Fold this sequence. Notes:
The chain has about 400 residues and is mostly helical. The chain has one domain (about 5-385): Amino acid/polyamine transporter I, CATH 1.20.1740.10. It is about 75% helix and about 0% strand. Helix 6 packs antiparallel against helix 13 and helix 7 (about 145-165) runs parallel beside helix 10. The mean pLDDT is about 85.
Amino acid sequence: MEAEKKLTLFEASSVVAGLGVGGGVMAVPYLASLNGIATVAAVMVSAYIVSLLLHLMVAEVVLRDEKARQLVEIFGKYLFVKSWWGSVLTWLFFGLIVVTFYSLLAAYLVGCAELIEQLTGLPVFAGEVVTYAIAAGVVFFGLKAIGLSEKYAVIGIAAVLVILSVGSLGNSFNPIPFIRGGSREVFAFYGMLMFSFACFFSVPQAVEGLSWNKKLVPYAVAIGIAINLCFAFVITLMSMLVSKEVTEVAILGWGEAVGGWALVLGAVFAFLAMMTSYWAVSYALAVILEERLNWGYRASWLAATFPTLILALVGIAGFRDFLRYAGGAMAVLVALLIVPALRKSRRLGEVKDPAFDMGIWGTTTFQLIVIAAYVLMAIGSVVPVGEVAP
């Protein structure tokens, strides 16, 4: 395969992880703190399992296609077919993705620029330009550059968490309740956690990057989501133990409780986390534009990234609120569509014997479990955070 698109297993796993870590993982601890540790552990394990099942379904669908297409074309091929309204639905889904991704990417630019302002005093608009140059610059060079950048960012994030955890050992720890909160608290936590595991649009990139050994694809998916699980667990546990109050961006509250140096590291974590998501989301959008509009990669890259800078400069509303509602809605929509696409691809896909299929874990029973799990995520995504009882 082309060298600029060949990924190692860890690079592919990092690309998968990168799409979820920038938004959901940072907001998970605040919602987790409204629950007891027993609930947190049970929800994390359950969310990982059902998320893994759905992402492996995505992997099987993509692997049954001759080309590692993005989900817009997958759904257009298997679901929105054989009539004029099928074409309309494909374009509507495409438009929904473009609008959602633009807003998410602009939110990441704004979030990074605010961190730069806190650390350096640089005006937010200048921080947005600097962030765009770094973020979009990596995506310009394609999948291999993204894989390498995601890998080193994941390593950097892990290093920050280790340093902060060790540095927290001298602090007095808060007691953590075993059971706390009610159904609203559980659903709100579950909804955000599922969003932080939602990496559907990076799975085709993992398939493309691992086309030299497609049997590694399910491992990349499992490891990528597990990375986000580990990050979410460590931040949640340490924030609940150390922070005076678990803040909505928990890593910053944790850093403030430890000391000034830790607050800087917390900002570095948040910056890297949002950067990884920008890389993963913007590359997915560039490929979506390339496939749907038959543009070249460079033109698609520009169309995928430059409008996000404009949106950031003119100002957008509520970073975390948008992540929670629009991002959650997109995850639920994909979950509801991927199951029928999987069933259809098993009949009509060009590759009858893919490198991976789910076997018993992809039967009707587990398909229904996944659908139910994402319907519950939809419920969790609309629980008003501000009204969740402390």
